[in-house]
Amino acid sequence: MREVFESGEGAVSLNLLQSKNQLSSNFFKRGIIIGLLSGLCYGFYSSFLTLGMSTGIWSEWYGANSALSAFVITYMLGALGSAINDTFSAVWAIVIAACKGKLGDFFRTIKTKPGMIIAAAALAGGPIAGTAYVISIQLAGSIVIPITALCPAVAAILSRILYKQKLTPRTILGIAICFMASFMIASTGFGGEAPKGLVLGMIVAFFAALGWGIEGCIAGYATCMVDYEIGITIRQITSGFTNLVILVPLFGILSGDGLGLSAHLISAAVADKPAMMWFVVSGFCAVYSFNLWYKGNSMCGTALGMACNATYSFFTPLCSWIILGLIMGQEGWDIPLIAWMAAVVMSVGIFVMAVNPLTFFKKKEA
């Protein structure tokens, strides 16, 4: 009788262990899907942001007859575009939190250590990385997007150092495959005459990758202790405020025109309703992209979550082709065949990171 009882107890324990492993596996896979969706939302965010920065007063600022200096056009307008987008994104985040009854949690969380960690990480990912991303695109075009997608490598190294997260050879191989796919996409931009600001754009794009890598590593850790929607609200408010109140005026001072120019550009941009409409949409896409990014990192780990999010290096050209090329009728947004092939390669890389290909196709043993 005792042997039967012990045997039954062992069977129950085995079933519990199997159930736990199944739940962990499902949680992990959901994190991967969420990370991929964050990359898709980032593609929409980038497309609508680009559309806003080519509409109305922005088309005059970037036009051939612009009265603005090269420094202002390259750096200050990039910071301004990022600032307006992040400000609208912060408003969306507050509205979403209020509708879900989480606004009180926001005010309580922002005073805690995890809340302060997220705010600090937002400084690296917002004013630094976000502005560098916009500036690098203005300098060299979409060719630099795969360079910004190096952020998973930065995050993986930091997470290994700070959190001792294990990096298996399979994970490293999967990340390398994703990087190869990103540079396959980048190779489409090397045909013909290279952009004048290519080298500088690549350097600036690396700073974007560095900032996002730092943010993904630190904020991913903090989001394990904080509701991801509260975390992203803290993130977007911090980023929008510092961009609009500190970074844009700072570029105005560096340009030699003082605070008057920054005030003029901000007021002119906000008064331009056609462009503002697209910034409202880009801000909505941005808040969901970062929401899903933070949540995915907390579910499947920083390295894999960042790699899934880095699929924006494909989704951005795809969304730009659909929105700017097909819908808005702008030229130069066609996607070459190699980019579609790169999407397949990137899918393989993510699959390799998610599961072991050698065991995935084996029949499950009883």
What would you say this structure looks like, in words?
By secondary structure, the protein is an all-alpha fold. The two termini are about 25 Å apart. The relative contact order is 0.19. Helices cover about 80% and strands about 0% of the residues. The longest helix has about 50 residues. The chain is globular, with a radius of gyration of 22 Å. It has 16 helices and no strands.
Q: What composes the largest sheet?
A: none
Helix and strand composition category: mainly alpha
Low-confidence stretches: none
Number of helices: 16
The best one-word shape is: globular
Helix content: over 70%
Classify the beta-strand content into a percent band: under 5%
Provide mean pLDDT, rounded.
80
The number of E-state strands comes to 0
Rounded Rg: 22 Å
Descriptors for this entry?
mainly alpha; 16 helices; single chain; 366 residues
